[in-house]
Amino acid sequence: MEGCHPLRGGDTPPSALRAATSPCRGGSFLLALLLATPALAEPPVVQSDAPDTVAVTLYRDPDRGDGAIDRNRPSSFALISETRTVTLPPGEVTVRFEGVASGIVPQSAILFGTDPRERNRDAALLSQKGLVDAFTGQGVILRRTDPATGTTVEEPATIRSAADRLVVTTPRGTEAVYCSGLKQTLIYPQAPATLSAKPVLSMLTKDQPGGRVTITLAYIATGFDWDATYVGTLAPDGKSLELLGWMTMASGDDTSFVDATTAAVAGKINRSDTTRDDSGARIKAEASSLYKQAQCWPMGNTSSGLNPPPPPPPPPPPAAPMMMEMAAGNIVVTARRREEKAAVVAEAEGLGDLKLYRIPVPVTVAARSHKQVAFLVKDAVRGETIYRTVIDEGPSPIDKLFRFRNRKDNGLGDPLPAGKAVLYQEGEHGRGLIGEASTPDKAMNEEVELAFARAGDVTIETREPASAKAPHVLTIRNANPFAVTFEAEFHNLGRTYRGLPSGLIAKPGKRVWRRTIPANETVQLSYRVD
Hints:
Layout: H1 16-21, H2 25-36, E1 45-48, E2 53-59, E3 76-88, E4 94-98, E5 110-112, E6 116-122, H3 128-134, E7 139-145, E8 152-161, E9 167-170, E10 173-176, E11 184-187, E12 200-205, E13 211-234, E14 240-251, E15 257-266, H4 279-288, H5 322-327, E16 331-333, E17 347-351, E18 354-358, E19 363-365, E20 369-382, E21 384-391, E22 399-405, E23 419-427, E24 430-439, E25 447-454, E26 458-463, E27 472-478, E28 484-491, E29 497-498, E30 505-507, E31 510-517, E32 522-529
Parallel strand pairs: 1-4, 2-15, 13-23, 16-20, 21-28
Antiparallel strand pairs: 2-3, 3-13, 4-12, 5-13, 6-12, 7-8, 7-11, 8-9, 9-10, 13-14, 14-20, 15-18, 15-19, 17-18, 21-22, 22-25, 23-24, 26-27, 27-32, 28-31, 29-32, 30-31
Protein backbone atom coordinates (compact mmCIF):
# COMPACT_ATOMS: atom_id res chain seq x y z
CA MET A 1 0.00 0.00 0.00
CA GLU A 2 1.12 3.51 -0.63
CA GLY A 3 2.85 5.00 2.36
CA CYS A 4 3.37 1.62 4.00
CA HIS A 5 6.82 0.07 4.31
CA PRO A 6 8.64 -2.23 6.70
CA LEU A 7 10.87 -0.74 9.36
CA ARG A 8 14.53 -0.66 8.62
CA GLY A 9 17.39 -0.72 11.04
CA GLY A 10 17.82 2.59 12.77
CA ASP A 11 14.23 3.71 11.99
CA THR A 12 12.29 5.24 14.87
CA PRO A 13 9.04 3.30 15.52
CA PRO A 14 5.89 5.39 15.13
CA SER A 15 3.89 6.30 18.26
CA ALA A 16 0.97 4.19 19.42
CA LEU A 17 -1.44 6.84 18.22
CA ARG A 18 0.10 6.95 14.73
CA ALA A 19 0.15 3.19 14.59
CA ALA A 20 -3.51 3.02 15.56
CA THR A 21 -4.51 5.58 12.88
CA SER A 22 -2.10 4.39 10.15
CA PRO A 23 -3.66 3.21 6.87
CA CYS A 24 -1.39 0.16 7.08
CA ARG A 25 -3.05 -3.22 7.45
CA GLY A 26 -1.49 -3.78 10.87
CA GLY A 27 -2.77 -0.43 12.17
CA SER A 28 -6.25 -1.13 10.82
CA PHE A 29 -6.29 -4.49 12.59
CA LEU A 30 -5.22 -2.91 15.91
CA LEU A 31 -7.90 -0.23 15.60
CA ALA A 32 -10.56 -2.81 14.85
CA LEU A 33 -9.42 -4.90 17.82
CA LEU A 34 -9.68 -1.89 20.17
CA LEU A 35 -13.14 -0.98 18.88
CA ALA A 36 -14.34 -4.56 19.26
CA THR A 37 -13.32 -4.76 22.93
CA PRO A 38 -16.40 -3.90 25.08
CA ALA A 39 -15.97 -1.54 28.04
CA LEU A 40 -16.56 -3.02 31.49
CA ALA A 41 -19.91 -1.56 32.55
CA GLU A 42 -21.12 -1.32 36.12
CA PRO A 43 -24.10 -3.57 36.93
CA PRO A 44 -27.43 -1.71 36.88
CA VAL A 45 -28.84 -0.60 40.24
CA VAL A 46 -32.38 -1.46 41.37
CA GLN A 47 -33.66 0.26 44.48
CA SER A 48 -36.19 -1.24 46.88
CA ASP A 49 -37.57 1.59 49.00
CA ALA A 50 -39.36 -0.44 51.68
CA PRO A 51 -40.46 -4.01 52.45
CA ASP A 52 -43.93 -5.29 51.57
CA THR A 53 -44.09 -7.33 54.77
CA VAL A 54 -41.70 -7.71 57.68
CA ALA A 55 -41.26 -10.10 60.61
CA VAL A 56 -39.32 -9.23 63.77
CA THR A 57 -38.19 -11.92 66.24
CA LEU A 58 -36.56 -10.59 69.39
CA TYR A 59 -34.04 -12.44 71.57
CA ARG A 60 -33.41 -11.70 75.24
CA ASP A 61 -29.92 -10.74 76.43
CA PRO A 62 -28.86 -13.74 78.54
CA ASP A 63 -26.02 -11.81 80.19
CA ARG A 64 -28.33 -9.14 81.59
CA GLY A 65 -29.55 -11.37 84.43
CA ASP A 66 -32.12 -9.67 86.65
CA GLY A 67 -31.10 -6.22 85.45
CA ALA A 68 -33.54 -4.01 83.59
CA ILE A 69 -33.38 -3.39 79.86
CA ASP A 70 -31.11 -0.48 78.93
CA ARG A 71 -33.74 1.95 77.66
CA ASN A 72 -31.25 3.97 75.60
CA ARG A 73 -29.25 1.08 74.18
CA PRO A 74 -30.86 -2.37 74.34
CA SER A 75 -28.11 -4.96 74.50
CA SER A 76 -29.50 -7.92 72.55
CA PHE A 77 -30.56 -8.51 68.96
CA ALA A 78 -33.44 -9.43 66.64
CA LEU A 79 -33.88 -11.52 63.53
CA ILE A 80 -35.47 -9.38 60.80
CA SER A 81 -37.13 -10.99 57.78
CA GLU A 82 -38.32 -8.67 54.99
CA THR A 83 -40.29 -9.62 51.87
CA ARG A 84 -39.91 -7.24 48.91
CA THR A 85 -41.05 -7.22 45.29
CA VAL A 86 -38.60 -5.86 42.70
CA THR A 87 -38.23 -5.85 38.91
CA LEU A 88 -34.75 -6.97 37.87
CA PRO A 89 -33.10 -6.62 34.44
CA PRO A 90 -31.31 -9.75 33.23
CA GLY A 91 -27.70 -10.32 34.22
CA GLU A 92 -25.90 -9.11 37.31
CA VAL A 93 -27.82 -6.49 39.29
CA THR A 94 -27.04 -4.41 42.39
CA VAL A 95 -30.13 -4.33 44.61
CA ARG A 96 -30.27 -1.50 47.18
CA PHE A 97 -32.45 -2.35 50.17
CA GLU A 98 -33.47 0.92 51.83
CA GLY A 99 -35.04 0.98 55.27
CA VAL A 100 -33.15 -1.94 56.80
CA ALA A 101 -32.32 -1.78 60.50
CA SER A 102 -29.49 0.63 61.25
CA GLY A 103 -27.95 -1.99 63.55
CA ILE A 104 -27.81 -4.61 60.80
CA VAL A 105 -24.99 -7.15 60.97
CA PRO A 106 -24.10 -7.35 57.25
CA GLN A 107 -22.34 -10.71 57.37
CA SER A 108 -25.53 -12.32 58.72
CA ALA A 109 -27.68 -11.25 55.75
CA ILE A 110 -29.13 -13.93 53.52
CA LEU A 111 -31.23 -13.48 50.38
CA PHE A 112 -33.96 -15.84 49.11
CA GLY A 113 -35.48 -15.53 45.62
CA THR A 114 -32.25 -14.69 43.75
CA ASP A 115 -28.65 -15.72 44.34
CA PRO A 116 -26.38 -13.01 45.82
CA ARG A 117 -22.71 -12.69 44.92
CA GLU A 118 -21.59 -9.96 47.34
CA ARG A 119 -23.13 -7.61 49.90
CA ASN A 120 -22.28 -4.26 51.43
CA ARG A 121 -23.76 -2.08 54.13
CA ASP A 122 -23.79 1.47 52.81
CA ALA A 123 -22.64 3.64 55.70
CA ALA A 124 -22.97 7.00 53.92
CA LEU A 125 -26.00 8.29 55.81
CA LEU A 126 -27.59 11.66 55.22
CA SER A 127 -26.21 13.44 58.27
CA GLN A 128 -24.13 16.46 59.22
CA LYS A 129 -20.87 14.54 58.93
CA GLY A 130 -21.98 12.87 55.70
CA LEU A 131 -22.76 16.22 54.09
CA VAL A 132 -19.42 17.73 55.11
CA ASP A 133 -17.52 14.72 53.79
CA ALA A 134 -19.45 14.77 50.50
CA PHE A 135 -18.83 18.51 49.95
CA THR A 136 -15.15 18.62 50.97
CA GLY A 137 -13.40 20.75 48.33
CA GLN A 138 -16.66 22.25 47.09
CA GLY A 139 -18.44 25.54 47.62
CA VAL A 140 -21.15 26.11 50.22
CA ILE A 141 -22.70 29.07 52.04
CA LEU A 142 -21.54 29.84 55.58
CA ARG A 143 -24.26 31.48 57.67
CA ARG A 144 -23.00 33.05 60.89
CA THR A 145 -23.58 35.80 63.43
CA ASP A 146 -21.56 38.98 62.94
CA PRO A 147 -19.75 39.56 66.29
CA ALA A 148 -19.80 43.34 65.77
CA THR A 149 -23.50 43.86 64.96
CA GLY A 150 -25.11 40.61 66.10
CA THR A 151 -26.87 40.24 62.73
CA THR A 152 -26.91 37.10 60.62
CA VAL A 153 -24.69 37.25 57.55
CA GLU A 154 -23.95 34.81 54.74
CA GLU A 155 -20.77 34.42 52.73
CA PRO A 156 -19.35 31.87 50.28
CA ALA A 157 -17.03 29.23 51.70
CA THR A 158 -15.13 26.18 50.53
CA ILE A 159 -14.85 23.13 52.80
CA ARG A 160 -11.20 22.15 53.13
CA SER A 161 -11.05 19.47 55.85
CA ALA A 162 -13.39 17.57 58.11
CA ALA A 163 -11.20 14.76 59.42
CA ASP A 164 -11.25 15.95 63.04
CA ARG A 165 -12.56 19.52 62.71
CA LEU A 166 -14.46 21.56 60.14
CA VAL A 167 -12.03 23.86 58.26
CA VAL A 168 -13.28 26.25 55.55
CA THR A 169 -11.83 28.99 53.35
CA THR A 170 -13.77 32.26 53.14
CA PRO A 171 -12.91 35.76 51.89
CA ARG A 172 -11.61 36.37 55.42
CA GLY A 173 -9.11 33.51 55.28
CA THR A 174 -8.92 29.90 56.44
CA GLU A 175 -10.60 29.13 59.73
CA ALA A 176 -11.87 26.33 61.91
CA VAL A 177 -15.63 26.65 62.09
CA TYR A 178 -17.26 26.50 65.56
CA CYS A 179 -14.10 27.94 67.18
CA SER A 180 -15.66 31.41 67.49
CA GLY A 181 -18.31 30.27 69.95
CA LEU A 182 -21.05 32.01 67.89
CA LYS A 183 -24.01 30.45 66.11
CA GLN A 184 -23.14 29.35 62.60
CA THR A 185 -24.09 26.71 60.10
CA LEU A 186 -23.43 25.58 56.55
CA ILE A 187 -25.97 25.74 53.71
CA TYR A 188 -25.54 23.13 50.97
CA PRO A 189 -26.78 23.51 47.38
CA GLN A 190 -28.37 20.04 47.34
CA ALA A 191 -28.26 16.62 48.96
CA PRO A 192 -25.68 14.37 47.27
CA ALA A 193 -27.02 11.30 45.52
CA THR A 194 -24.44 9.20 47.38
CA LEU A 195 -26.11 9.87 50.74
CA SER A 196 -29.21 8.05 51.93
CA ALA A 197 -31.68 9.22 54.55
CA LYS A 198 -32.28 5.59 55.51
CA PRO A 199 -29.88 2.72 56.29
CA VAL A 200 -29.11 0.77 53.11
CA LEU A 201 -27.87 -2.74 52.38
CA SER A 202 -26.64 -3.42 48.84
CA MET A 203 -26.42 -6.89 47.31
CA LEU A 204 -24.92 -7.82 43.95
CA THR A 205 -26.75 -10.76 42.38
CA LYS A 206 -25.33 -13.46 40.19
CA ASP A 207 -26.26 -13.68 36.51
CA GLN A 208 -30.06 -14.16 36.51
CA PRO A 209 -32.85 -14.09 33.89
CA GLY A 210 -34.55 -10.95 35.26
CA GLY A 211 -38.23 -10.12 35.64
CA ARG A 212 -40.51 -9.26 38.52
CA VAL A 213 -39.50 -11.36 41.52
CA THR A 214 -40.40 -11.60 45.19
CA ILE A 215 -37.33 -11.82 47.37
CA THR A 216 -36.86 -12.27 51.11
CA LEU A 217 -34.04 -10.59 52.97
CA ALA A 218 -33.22 -11.95 56.43
CA TYR A 219 -30.56 -10.60 58.78
CA ILE A 220 -29.58 -10.11 62.42
CA ALA A 221 -29.73 -6.59 63.84
CA THR A 222 -28.34 -5.41 67.16
CA GLY A 223 -30.04 -2.91 69.47
CA PHE A 224 -33.08 -4.94 70.52
CA ASP A 225 -34.11 -6.77 73.68
CA TRP A 226 -37.15 -8.07 75.49
CA ASP A 227 -38.13 -9.02 79.02
CA ALA A 228 -40.89 -10.83 80.87
CA THR A 229 -42.77 -9.23 83.76
CA TYR A 230 -45.46 -10.99 85.77
CA VAL A 231 -48.32 -9.49 87.71
CA GLY A 232 -49.92 -11.89 90.20
CA THR A 233 -52.85 -11.57 92.58
CA LEU A 234 -52.69 -13.98 95.51
CA ALA A 235 -55.98 -15.35 96.77
CA PRO A 236 -56.96 -14.42 100.37
CA ASP A 237 -56.24 -18.00 101.53
CA GLY A 238 -52.81 -17.98 99.82
CA LYS A 239 -53.54 -21.18 97.88
CA SER A 240 -53.88 -19.86 94.34
CA LEU A 241 -52.46 -17.10 92.18
CA GLU A 242 -54.05 -15.20 89.32
CA LEU A 243 -51.15 -14.61 86.90
CA LEU A 244 -50.70 -12.20 84.00
CA GLY A 245 -47.43 -12.19 82.03
CA TRP A 246 -46.28 -9.12 80.07
CA MET A 247 -43.79 -9.18 77.20
CA THR A 248 -41.83 -5.88 77.13
CA MET A 249 -40.14 -5.41 73.76
CA ALA A 250 -37.45 -2.75 73.33
CA SER A 251 -36.00 -1.27 70.15
CA GLY A 252 -33.03 1.09 70.14
CA ASP A 253 -32.91 1.11 66.34
CA ASP A 254 -33.59 4.14 64.12
CA THR A 255 -35.87 2.15 61.79
CA SER A 256 -39.55 1.49 62.47
CA PHE A 257 -41.10 -1.78 61.33
CA VAL A 258 -44.78 -1.10 60.65
CA ASP A 259 -47.42 -3.84 61.06
CA ALA A 260 -44.75 -6.46 61.66
CA THR A 261 -45.30 -10.09 62.51
CA THR A 262 -43.63 -10.01 65.90
CA ALA A 263 -42.37 -12.73 68.23
CA ALA A 264 -39.98 -13.18 71.14
CA VAL A 265 -37.77 -16.19 71.91
CA ALA A 266 -37.27 -17.39 75.48
CA GLY A 267 -34.09 -19.25 76.40
CA LYS A 268 -30.35 -18.85 75.96
CA ILE A 269 -28.63 -19.37 72.61
CA ASN A 270 -24.96 -19.23 71.68
CA ARG A 271 -23.71 -16.12 69.88
CA SER A 272 -20.39 -15.61 68.16
CA ASP A 273 -18.43 -12.38 68.27
CA THR A 274 -19.20 -11.78 64.58
CA THR A 275 -22.93 -11.38 65.29
CA ARG A 276 -22.22 -8.89 68.06
CA ASP A 277 -21.12 -6.44 65.37
CA ASP A 278 -21.34 -2.85 66.61
CA SER A 279 -20.87 -1.16 63.26
CA GLY A 280 -24.41 0.15 63.23
CA ALA A 281 -24.01 1.93 66.56
CA ARG A 282 -20.54 3.18 65.67
CA ILE A 283 -21.66 4.55 62.31
CA LYS A 284 -24.64 6.32 63.87
CA ALA A 285 -22.45 7.86 66.56
CA GLU A 286 -19.90 9.08 64.03
CA ALA A 287 -22.56 10.51 61.73
CA SER A 288 -24.54 12.27 64.43
CA SER A 289 -22.23 15.27 64.88
CA LEU A 290 -18.86 16.80 64.15
CA TYR A 291 -16.09 17.40 66.66
CA LYS A 292 -17.14 20.99 67.17
CA GLN A 293 -14.68 21.82 69.95
CA ALA A 294 -11.69 19.75 68.82
CA GLN A 295 -8.26 21.09 67.87
CA CYS A 296 -9.08 24.77 67.44
CA TRP A 297 -5.92 26.81 67.03
CA PRO A 298 -5.49 29.67 69.54
CA MET A 299 -6.98 32.20 67.14
CA GLY A 300 -10.11 31.19 65.27
CA ASN A 301 -9.01 32.86 62.00
CA THR A 302 -5.66 32.71 60.20
CA SER A 303 -5.95 36.25 58.82
CA SER A 304 -7.49 38.41 61.55
CA GLY A 305 -6.13 36.72 64.66
CA LEU A 306 -8.74 38.59 66.70
CA ASN A 307 -11.21 35.90 67.69
CA PRO A 308 -11.03 34.78 71.33
CA PRO A 309 -10.76 31.10 72.23
CA PRO A 310 -14.13 29.31 72.34
CA PRO A 311 -16.01 29.01 75.61
CA PRO A 312 -16.19 25.55 77.20
CA PRO A 313 -19.02 23.34 75.93
CA PRO A 314 -22.21 23.40 78.02
CA PRO A 315 -22.88 20.38 80.24
CA PRO A 316 -25.14 17.71 78.78
CA PRO A 317 -28.79 17.89 79.84
CA PRO A 318 -29.79 15.58 82.67
CA ALA A 319 -31.43 12.30 81.76
CA ALA A 320 -35.20 12.33 81.95
CA PRO A 321 -36.70 10.33 84.81
CA MET A 322 -38.35 7.07 83.88
CA MET A 323 -41.83 8.31 84.77
CA MET A 324 -41.37 11.34 82.51
CA GLU A 325 -40.32 9.06 79.67
CA MET A 326 -43.39 6.93 80.22
CA ALA A 327 -45.57 10.02 80.20
CA ALA A 328 -44.03 11.03 76.88
CA GLY A 329 -45.63 7.95 75.34
CA ASN A 330 -42.69 5.72 74.46
CA ILE A 331 -44.30 2.75 76.20
CA VAL A 332 -47.33 1.44 74.34
CA VAL A 333 -49.61 -1.02 76.09
CA THR A 334 -51.50 -3.22 73.65
CA ALA A 335 -53.13 -5.52 76.19
CA ARG A 336 -55.25 -4.62 79.19
CA ARG A 337 -55.49 -5.71 82.81
CA ARG A 338 -57.04 -9.05 83.68
CA GLU A 339 -60.46 -7.53 84.50
CA GLU A 340 -60.79 -6.65 80.82
CA LYS A 341 -59.54 -10.09 79.73
CA ALA A 342 -56.34 -8.98 77.88
CA ALA A 343 -57.27 -8.02 74.34
CA VAL A 344 -54.05 -9.36 72.75
CA VAL A 345 -52.21 -12.38 74.12
CA ALA A 346 -49.07 -13.87 72.54
CA GLU A 347 -49.28 -17.53 71.57
CA ALA A 348 -46.56 -19.97 72.62
CA GLU A 349 -45.02 -22.42 70.15
CA GLY A 350 -41.91 -24.58 70.02
CA LEU A 351 -38.63 -23.52 68.41
CA GLY A 352 -36.29 -26.47 68.90
CA ASP A 353 -35.54 -26.59 72.61
CA LEU A 354 -36.53 -22.93 72.94
CA LYS A 355 -39.95 -21.34 73.26
CA LEU A 356 -41.27 -18.74 70.85
CA TYR A 357 -44.10 -16.36 71.78
CA ARG A 358 -45.84 -15.04 68.68
CA ILE A 359 -48.15 -12.03 68.83
CA PRO A 360 -51.32 -13.03 66.91
CA VAL A 361 -51.92 -9.57 65.39
CA PRO A 362 -49.55 -7.27 63.47
CA VAL A 363 -47.85 -4.68 65.66
CA THR A 364 -45.53 -1.81 64.90
CA VAL A 365 -42.05 -2.14 66.39
CA ALA A 366 -41.39 1.58 66.42
CA ALA A 367 -37.94 3.16 66.40
CA ARG A 368 -36.51 3.80 69.88
CA SER A 369 -39.56 2.59 71.76
CA HIS A 370 -40.87 0.07 74.25
CA LYS A 371 -44.03 -1.94 73.69
CA GLN A 372 -45.87 -4.30 76.04
CA VAL A 373 -48.07 -7.22 75.08
CA ALA A 374 -49.61 -9.89 77.31
CA PHE A 375 -48.28 -13.39 76.65
CA LEU A 376 -49.69 -15.33 79.61
CA VAL A 377 -53.12 -15.12 81.26
CA LYS A 378 -54.02 -17.68 83.95
CA ASP A 379 -57.03 -17.31 86.22
CA ALA A 380 -55.94 -19.62 89.05
CA VAL A 381 -52.50 -21.21 89.46
CA ARG A 382 -52.79 -23.55 92.43
CA GLY A 383 -49.93 -23.68 94.92
CA GLU A 384 -49.19 -22.78 98.53
CA THR A 385 -47.71 -19.98 100.60
CA ILE A 386 -44.57 -21.02 102.47
CA TYR A 387 -42.55 -19.39 105.27
CA ARG A 388 -38.91 -20.44 104.87
CA THR A 389 -35.57 -20.04 106.58
CA VAL A 390 -32.18 -21.33 105.40
CA ILE A 391 -29.92 -22.83 108.07
CA ASP A 392 -26.21 -22.15 107.87
CA GLU A 393 -24.86 -22.27 111.40
CA GLY A 394 -27.86 -20.24 112.45
CA PRO A 395 -31.12 -19.41 110.64
CA SER A 396 -31.56 -16.71 108.01
CA PRO A 397 -34.47 -14.21 108.18
CA ILE A 398 -37.77 -15.83 107.24
CA ASP A 399 -38.91 -15.32 103.63
CA LYS A 400 -42.49 -15.52 102.50
CA LEU A 401 -42.94 -17.22 99.13
CA PHE A 402 -45.55 -18.72 96.84
CA ARG A 403 -44.62 -22.14 95.44
CA PHE A 404 -46.29 -24.13 92.69
CA ARG A 405 -45.50 -26.91 90.28
CA ASN A 406 -45.68 -25.76 86.64
CA ARG A 407 -48.24 -28.30 85.45
CA LYS A 408 -51.53 -28.09 83.61
CA ASP A 409 -53.43 -29.76 86.44
CA ASN A 410 -52.25 -26.87 88.64
CA GLY A 411 -53.64 -24.30 86.21
CA LEU A 412 -50.46 -23.40 84.28
CA GLY A 413 -48.40 -25.89 82.27
CA ASP A 414 -46.60 -23.31 80.08
CA PRO A 415 -42.90 -22.43 80.03
CA LEU A 416 -42.12 -19.33 82.09
CA PRO A 417 -39.40 -17.02 80.68
CA ALA A 418 -37.10 -15.43 83.23
CA GLY A 419 -38.36 -12.17 84.64
CA LYS A 420 -39.61 -10.19 87.60
CA ALA A 421 -42.99 -10.57 89.30
CA VAL A 422 -45.10 -8.05 91.18
CA LEU A 423 -47.55 -9.64 93.62
CA TYR A 424 -50.79 -8.30 95.08
CA GLN A 425 -53.31 -9.86 97.41
CA GLU A 426 -57.03 -9.36 97.82
CA GLY A 427 -58.07 -8.09 101.26
CA GLU A 428 -61.02 -6.59 103.05
CA HIS A 429 -60.41 -3.20 101.46
CA GLY A 430 -59.39 -4.34 97.98
CA ARG A 431 -56.11 -5.34 96.42
CA GLY A 432 -52.79 -4.38 98.01
CA LEU A 433 -49.12 -4.78 97.04
CA ILE A 434 -47.41 -7.53 99.04
CA GLY A 435 -44.01 -7.71 97.35
CA GLU A 436 -41.83 -8.38 94.33
CA ALA A 437 -39.97 -11.49 93.21
CA SER A 438 -37.98 -12.86 90.28
CA THR A 439 -37.71 -16.22 88.59
CA PRO A 440 -35.22 -17.84 86.19
CA ASP A 441 -36.42 -19.66 83.07
CA LYS A 442 -38.76 -22.44 84.14
CA ALA A 443 -39.84 -25.35 81.95
CA MET A 444 -43.01 -27.37 82.30
CA ASN A 445 -43.23 -29.61 85.39
CA GLU A 446 -40.55 -27.60 87.21
CA GLU A 447 -41.08 -26.17 90.67
CA VAL A 448 -41.45 -22.38 90.75
CA GLU A 449 -40.84 -20.24 93.83
CA LEU A 450 -41.70 -16.57 94.05
CA ALA A 451 -40.10 -15.18 97.24
CA PHE A 452 -41.89 -11.87 97.57
CA ALA A 453 -41.52 -10.60 101.17
CA ARG A 454 -39.91 -10.96 104.60
CA ALA A 455 -42.27 -12.49 107.12
CA GLY A 456 -43.75 -10.18 109.74
CA ASP A 457 -46.10 -12.43 111.72
CA VAL A 458 -43.89 -15.53 111.78
CA THR A 459 -40.75 -15.04 113.87
CA ILE A 460 -37.80 -17.16 114.89
CA GLU A 461 -35.62 -17.11 118.01
CA THR A 462 -32.29 -18.91 118.46
CA ARG A 463 -30.86 -20.30 121.69
CA GLU A 464 -27.13 -20.58 121.26
CA PRO A 465 -25.51 -23.86 122.41
CA ALA A 466 -23.90 -23.79 125.87
CA SER A 467 -21.07 -26.10 124.72
CA ALA A 468 -19.69 -27.63 121.55
CA LYS A 469 -21.86 -30.72 122.04
CA ALA A 470 -25.03 -28.81 122.94
CA PRO A 471 -27.68 -28.28 120.23
CA HIS A 472 -28.95 -25.11 118.60
CA VAL A 473 -32.60 -24.63 119.52
CA LEU A 474 -34.93 -22.63 117.26
CA THR A 475 -38.30 -21.41 118.45
CA ILE A 476 -40.75 -20.48 115.67
CA ARG A 477 -43.88 -18.49 116.55
CA ASN A 478 -46.90 -18.01 114.31
CA ALA A 479 -48.77 -14.82 115.25
CA ASN A 480 -51.26 -15.18 112.39
CA PRO A 481 -54.92 -16.07 113.08
CA PHE A 482 -54.51 -18.99 110.67
CA ALA A 483 -52.17 -21.95 110.29
CA VAL A 484 -49.01 -21.55 108.19
CA THR A 485 -46.57 -23.92 106.51
CA PHE A 486 -42.98 -23.46 107.71
CA GLU A 487 -39.81 -24.92 106.20
CA ALA A 488 -36.18 -24.93 107.34
CA GLU A 489 -33.62 -25.82 104.67
CA PHE A 490 -30.31 -27.50 105.54
CA HIS A 491 -27.96 -27.18 102.55
CA ASN A 492 -25.31 -29.84 101.95
CA LEU A 493 -22.45 -27.34 101.59
CA GLY A 494 -19.47 -27.76 103.91
CA ARG A 495 -21.37 -28.43 107.16
CA THR A 496 -22.60 -31.58 108.87
CA TYR A 497 -25.85 -31.36 110.82
CA ARG A 498 -26.60 -33.93 113.50
CA GLY A 499 -29.54 -34.58 115.75
CA LEU A 500 -32.06 -33.56 113.11
CA PRO A 501 -35.61 -34.83 113.54
CA SER A 502 -36.85 -37.64 111.34
CA GLY A 503 -39.02 -37.16 108.29
CA LEU A 504 -36.85 -34.59 106.46
CA ILE A 505 -37.63 -34.07 102.77
CA ALA A 506 -34.68 -34.73 100.44
CA LYS A 507 -34.25 -32.20 97.62
CA PRO A 508 -31.29 -31.57 95.29
CA GLY A 509 -28.44 -30.19 97.41
CA LYS A 510 -30.48 -29.87 100.61
CA ARG A 511 -32.78 -31.44 103.17
CA VAL A 512 -35.97 -29.73 104.33
CA TRP A 513 -37.71 -29.78 107.73
CA ARG A 514 -41.38 -28.97 107.12
CA ARG A 515 -44.09 -28.32 109.67
CA THR A 516 -47.59 -26.83 109.84
CA ILE A 517 -47.77 -24.30 112.67
CA PRO A 518 -51.32 -23.71 113.94
CA ALA A 519 -52.64 -20.19 114.53
CA ASN A 520 -50.92 -18.43 117.44
CA GLU A 521 -48.85 -21.55 118.20
CA THR A 522 -45.12 -22.25 118.68
CA VAL A 523 -42.86 -25.09 117.51
CA GLN A 524 -39.21 -25.87 118.21
CA LEU A 525 -36.37 -27.32 116.14
CA SER A 526 -33.01 -28.47 117.52
CA TYR A 527 -29.83 -29.59 115.77
CA ARG A 528 -26.05 -29.74 116.19
CA VAL A 529 -23.42 -28.44 113.79
CA ASP A 530 -20.05 -30.12 113.19
